[in-house]
Amino acid sequence: MHDPSAPLSPLTVLARRIRARPPSLGPVRLVAVDGYAGSGKTTFTARLAEALGGGTPVLHLDDLATHDELFAWTDRLRTGILAPLARGATAHYRAYDWAERRFAGPERALPAAPVVLLEGVGAGRSALRPHLACLLWMDMDRSDSWDRGQLRDGAEQAEFWAGWMRAERAHFAADPTHPYAELLVRQGPLGYEVLPGPHGTV
User: Radius of gyration of the chain from Cα atoms?
Assistant: First the structure.
């Protein structure tokens, strides 16, 4: 049980703030976690989902992107995910298999929960921002993020990373997220710090 005299963790405070927001997509508070590849979005989003509790669903944009469409997944997201959520219905989709290079596996369900987390590079793109209750940016330098991502994926992914870096740089040059982020998330040795972003009002 939480000691009422002890300070709340940044993730607990953030979770409370998100739950207090009005819905942004039908009954859903859609929260985007964006940042450069390798910046720690997936891990942070999992921790935030835990803080939100209640089995908060998470959609990874890596499940909607493909080798040929690294960033051309907006229509797929709108029709397959956002449209049903806006109606209060459960969305269904198949995830892209990066090894088999096709959409495969069993169909997955994404319920219209009070909060749905959307994480991945481009999650805060301009086409999605009108549907967001909150936009967070992982505040890590691009070169540091890419170095960490390449170390994580190993030498066998070197060719893919070369193409990815070109595509990511072009995406953010045409459709930047950072200037529109309400909150910045920084990871330190003692955990996460959540700070006001360029578009924040906190």
Answer: 17
Q: How far is 101 from 113, CA to CA, in rounded Å?
A: 30
The pTM assigned to this predicted structure is: 0.92
Query: CA–CA separation, 17 vs 70, rounded Å?
Result: 32
**Among 42, 8, 56, 33, which residue's Cα sits nearest to residue 197?**
33
Number of domains in the chain: 1
Q: What is the CATH number of the domain that holds 101?
A: 3.40.50.300
- For residue 5, is it within any domain? no
DSSP state of 78: I
Domain span holding position 96: 10-196
Which segments of the chain have a pLDDT < 70? 1-6, 149, 153, 200-202
Which residues partner with 117 through β-bridges? 31, 58
Burial of 38 (0-12, 13-18, 19+ CB in 10 A): buried
CB 197 within 8 A of CB 177: no
